[in-house]
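Consortium newsletter contribution from the modelling node. Members have asked for a concrete example of what our holo predictions look like. Here is one, prepared for the zinc ion complex that several groups have been discussing at recent meetings.
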Amino acid sequence: MTISHHPPEDLLADFAAGKLEEAHQLVVGVHVAGCTRCARFVQAIEQLAGATLEDFEPVPIAPDAFDRVMSRIDNSPEDEAAPPPASATDHDLPPALRKYRIGKRRRIAPGLSMRPIELSGSGKARAFLLRSAPGSRMLEHTHTGTELTLVLEGSFSHEGGRFGPGDFDYGDDEIEHRPVVGDEGPCVCLVAMTGDLRMNGFLGRLIGPFVRL
Ligand SMILES: [Zn+2]
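And here is the predicted structure:
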């Protein structure tokens, strides 16, 4: 598995500090569990946080934060990297997901269904598994909040590139998406979302201006 899209560094830093709300902690956590690069970054942040009494300089979250943090950690053993996440069939979810109750599959639109993940209810974001049929063009949509998406199976592409298993996509209300699902099979994503998903276009109008996922 080649992962080419990672969470932004500030999100990883907040994850390492346990500051994210539950849905985001879950999605970032599943990515980190399958990504050697991000697992090492999180481990490095944790080590630096645990070493505040020593004379480390603070580590600002800048575009080069990853390289700067990694340059301070020269002896993180490679073999501590976590195994890649399992594929996301009903029987074989990533380990971090197995402790959650996952609701029944609900059809949202042709070729599109979701299964809600039951969180403890303290955060604002919802989490769900989103399944799209191979080759489908997902509804054009914009967000009223943020959306964290992690591909578990299959792939999709949009203006930002191609996203396959393990890839992480961050969307906010600035971004308009028109993802196309790859032909190789259904695309299953783990999604954490705040706000609403606003459907555009003909089909969107047909099924309603808002789909409450
Ligand atoms: Zn990563």
